[in-house]
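Before a colleague's protein record goes any further, I have to sign it off. Alongside the sequence sits a line of tokens, each denoting a local backbone shape. I want your independent view on whether this chain really folds as the tokens say. Where you disagree with what is written, explain briefly why. This is what I was given:
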Amino acid sequence: MTPRFSVSNFLAVVNQTFEAVFAGAVEVEGEVVSFKSYPPKYAFFTLKDDDGSVNCFVGFSNLRTPIEDGMKVVVRATPSLRDDGKFNLQVQKVFPLGEGNLKRSFDILKQKLATEGLFDVNRKRPLPRYPHRVAVISSTKAAGYADFMKISRDRWGGVKFIVANVNVQGDGAADQIIRAISYFNQMAEPPEVIALIRGGGSAEDLASFNDEQLVRVVAGSRVPIITGIGHEIDESLCDLAADVRGATPSNVAQLLFPDKHELVGHLHFRLIGVKDEIKRAIDEQILRATMLQKDALEQWSSQVRDAINATLSQQKIIAEYDPEMALQRGYAMISGDLQVGSIVKITTKDIIMKARIEDSERRNDN
């Protein structure tokens, strides 16, 4: 017996069949035509090849890689029969195919984000000079991560590394990195810097680092981010949005950490310079002290000479008033009561005599 459905039941059964057959999603490859976008909500386009086409609907939150007419892509989508009976693909993700299409998608998004100012130099922050708490986002199984850790530990010590082990390519890699950055930003004691690293690979391998949502999270991180993605010639949008870009994971280690051996050598050289400066300063102080001592000695000697000369002058004056000196010159010294009839003592150079005053008269100075 032929089954009979109402229209709505038929649509529901068809969609359930699609879901059962394709396990919820299917990937379809083709060329984009008739792309129309209605930001910030959704976009429509048609996916076609030489023998057919299918309509696609995508919400803007799922369109994390820009596309345009003529690009070849793979879409991951859910087949759906709409209420109006039209068939389309409800797109979950879009993946550009081939280096040419990846490059075109890269250029479109680069121009868009540059216009918004996400790559402006004046919004970039310097790295800490001597970081001691560093977050690392990478695949811990990758050679780039091993190189980074080895060089970091060789160059510096005493660093606490907080590592988020994530996929760095393929489906879900961008979302894992976004969650890791958000986690580090929300820590009670956040790291001083986040190192986002990945070794070399093809354009397809590095495509996750051109994911629009990831690029915006890198640009908006409150913790400074340094990137080392691919080889030196590779450029990702995460590199442009980061505060500092390293050419490779190894170069990130070199940019983050000073070389302790070079630093010790530099400090040794500086200490030699300081030693010479201190010696020069001491020699200058010794010379200055010697000159001051010489000046002080000369001043003291001059003062002593002046004091001796003054003493000698005073001694000479005192000698002039010494009665003994007058006696030596032939004078006599009379002592006693100088009244007529009194006995007085007369002292000369050689003898002492006594005499009576028989008479006296006042001396006439005229």
